[in-house]
Specification:
The chain has two helices and ten strands. With about 170 residues, the protein is α+β, with helices and mostly antiparallel strands. It starts with a helix and ends with a strand.
Length: about 170
């Protein structure tokens, strides 16, 4: 029986959580967009401190974000309401691969450090979008936890150059 893409992602996530980076096989270290984003039917709905993945059809609003080789996001600050499902439409205006990853400051910093050690590391989560030059990508996310979070490009050198932004999830009244 061939595993589904969702089962493969889940298995890889568990492997990464249990194994030290030194034990990871080199075949698992290939960064880029070799694997297509999961279809809406395959959205991984794992709760994170900053929310949970959602299907595109669930979005009630779209926010356009541009990124480029100047190592900046425009806009660099986003505000959403707790409970809001948003489609982040990400356009790479540059000539090199960039990504947008949602998370806490601590998690993004830790992931950026891991990416420096393994610059070809592959990851495909619903809170990440790898966007090739002159292309667009999407993240559809339900922000069901209030707080201050971040988004960043974790490709080695990009995060360190300041390619990050802030995200505020405003609590329900």
């Amino acid at each position: 029986m061939t595993p589904t893409p969702t089962r493969r992602r889940t298995a890889l996530r568990h492997l990464l959580a249990l194994a030290t980076p030194a034990l990871l096989p080199l075949s698992a270290l290939a960064h880029g967009d070799a694997h297509p984003k999961a279809t809406d039917a395959e959205v991984v709905r794992e709760q994170k401190p900053w929310g949970i993945g959602a299907a595109t059809a669930e979005a009630t609003r779209r926010i356009d974000i541009r990124m480029g080789d100047d190592m900046r996001f425009t806009p660099s600050h986003i505000e959403v309401r707790e409970g809001e499902t948003v489609r982040l439409r990400i356009a790479n205006r540059g000539k090199t691969l960039h990504e947008l990853v949602l998370g806490t400051s601590e998690e993004l910093q830790a992931h950026a450090e891991l990416m420096k050690k393994h610059p070809g590391m592959q990851h495909d989560e619903p809170y990440m979008a790898h966007v090739s030059p002159r292309q667009r990508g999407d993240i559809t996310w339900t922000f069901n936890r209030p707080g201050d979070f971040e988004f960043a490009c974790l490709i080695p050198g990009h995060f360190e150059a300041g390619m990050r932004g802030t995200l505020r999830v405003i609590p329900r009244p």
